[in-house]
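dude i think i finally got it to work??
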Amino acid sequence: MLTFYFLQTSRAFRIAWLLEELNVEYDLKSAERNPDLSVPTSLKVPTSLGKSPAIRDGNLVVGESGAITEYLVETYDTERRLMPLDLGKRVKVREYMWAAEGTFLMHGLAIWALRPACPESVKEDGLDEIEAKLAVPVQRDFDWLENELANSGGPFLLGNDVTAADTMLAFSCQFIIASNLGLGKKSWPHINKWLENVEKRDAYQRAIKRTGHHL
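look at this
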């Protein structure tokens, strides 16, 4: 049976949701973060970096959300629901997958990491100004996604069916929204509706129940 190493309040949840979408049986190994936000050694993540998420499937160990997603859909998505055979759709899925980490989270985490790291003198006199500058790419990302969803032709990123694009990108947006990382008072109704549709899915709710995930 596949083993899944899960750290609470992390992007690892996207793998739990994907496993539920694929109806793959898995042994869940989970833990809360240490107070310093590091991964507890008790989780015994078998990757060289010891980071979550990770999976062990037989003798194979895979780390990093994107790589795990690619492996799971290649191995278990026999109906090709989550990574379509159509080349244009498959390319689009991968574009969203890479944007989840390399664009959305990268821009959001710049603000998230800045807040506790700033000296008190900067927090008092200049943090708002710095955040306002860092917010520009975050809002640009959301504007792009809002337009993509307005033209998707359905409730999900590629239309009527969930794909690996949704499982990868949803957490990035949820994290940015929950932490208010550069969004200010702006709103993106198509993104909000998409996340509502995501969160209503049976597989998503099963993953919540199984992992106890919370932001």
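The chain has a mean pLDDT of 92.
im so relieved honestly
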